[in-house]
Design goal:
The protein contains four helices and seven strands. With about 140 residues, it is α+β, with helices and mostly antiparallel strands. Strands 1, 2, 3, 4, 5, 6 and 7 form a seven-stranded mixed beta sheet that branches. It is globular and about 35 Å long.
Length: about 140
């Protein structure tokens, strides 16, 4: 967990992005970004900008509802840090969804598919298929919490 404590702090001049860590047993829910979006064609947890006047948890619930049609029933802020790109702050939430409805692609202009991935599968994707270079490392660290 030393790596988590050594993450670069958030910067006030950067936009904040929520990152929803949705885990079911030993698998994490990832979404494939639409090709016309930033990080198009790459896999990421459900993410989204925090709008002006919106709390972190409000943004989390809104993004989950808009992108995968699910409802957040519980969340816990895990960590926040500046992304390796230096362009945004990432705010990670452990996120529990209501059992119904099942997550689905609700916003096809944002994401093209969703899937459940083990840590090993995320590691395989880390060479070329992940939107955030640090995604595998964060998921590995978070699953140990």
């Amino acid at each position: 967990m030393d790596e988590i404590s050594n993450l670069p702090p958030c910067r006030a001049d950067l936009k904040n992005v929520i990152v929803a860590v949705i885990k079911n047993e030993n698998r994490f829910l990832l979404a494939k970004r639409h090709p016309n979006k930033n990080d198009g064609g790459l896999w990421t947890p459900v993410t989204g900008w925090i709008k002006k006047g919106e709390s972190e948890t409000e943004a989390l619930a809104r993004e989950i509802s808009e992108e995968i049609g699910a409802t957040v029933i519980n969340s816990k802020r895990l960590l926040a840090h500046m992304a390796k790109t230096g362009k945004v702050n990432l705010i990670w939430f452990q996120t529990q969804l209501s059992p119904t409805p099942e997550p689905f692609v609700k916003a096809p202009d944002e994401i093209t598919e969703i899937g459940w991935f083990s840590l090993d599968q995320i590691k395989e994707l880390s060479a070329t298929g992940l939107a955030y270079p640090e995604l595998y490392d964060r998921m590995e660290q978070i699953s140990a919490l």
